Amino acid sequence: MNSNKKFNRRAFVTFGMIASGIVLPVSGLMNHFLGFDLLTLSRHFWMSVHNILGILFTIFSISHIILNWHAIKNYLFRIKKAVVSTEALAAISIVAFITGIFALHVFIAG
Asked: Measured between alpha carbons, how far is 26 from 11 in angstroms, rounded to an integer?
């Protein structure tokens, strides 16, 4: 490791956000599957993992926005002039549709 190289805060924050963001849904699914169990060691473990990952993901995300605020501001300024692309509309539609399907199970199973 080169000791002369400065610590890259942007890279650190980005990798922290990615790492916590990848495992966060896994712990959420485990909580969902164990949700009907009593407070077993397994359920307590996954609840703890999910809670701390949610906190870390939030901290890393806010730090990411702060460290990249200038680039984000420039991007948002440019996007005001642009028309929403077909790809963006397709992605938003798919996310909304899939979220709706998964959320509706509450009313069907109830």
From this structure: 23
